[in-house]
């Protein structure tokens, strides 16, 4: 169908893209609720969440830090239970950037603990 005026064309395009934006927004929100770390590195998992968050923000519907805390902690898996409990029981909601940093610190600390070099103990003989 052809528009009879520029206003009519603009209105049609505006409605068309608004519907697509809403559909895309719902898709992204659903993706956030379903995302899990799986075989991804922790960094890749968190970056994926950040990318979805950025897209939702661009669409005018940014998730709250509380929402992000739920999505991140739900998707991390049991390896992070101690950290998850600490983050969820704080008096205030952890901002996503701080949550990102704490999870990466936890990952580095866990890696370091798993890969400690064992120095054999040999008693001194005099």
Automatic annotation (TrEMBL):
Family annotation (Pfam families): Retrotran_gag_2
Domain of life: Eukaryota
Entry protein name: UBN2 domain-containing protein
């Amino acid at each position: 169908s052809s528009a009879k005026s520029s206003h009519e064309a603009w209105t049609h395009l505006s409605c068309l893209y608004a519907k697509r934006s809403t559909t895309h927004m719902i898709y992204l929100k659903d993706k956030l609720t379903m995302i899990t770390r799986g075989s991804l590195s922790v960094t890749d998992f968190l970056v994926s969440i950040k990318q979805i968050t950025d897209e939702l923000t661009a669409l005018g519907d940014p998730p709250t830090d509380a929402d992000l805390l739920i999505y991140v902690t739900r998707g991390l898996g049991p390896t992070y239970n101690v950290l998850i409990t600490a983050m969820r029981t704080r008096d205030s909601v952890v901002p996503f950037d701080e949550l990102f940093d704490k999870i990466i610190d936890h990952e580095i600390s866990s890696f370091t603990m798993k890969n400690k070099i064992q120095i054999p103990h040999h008693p001194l003989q005099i």
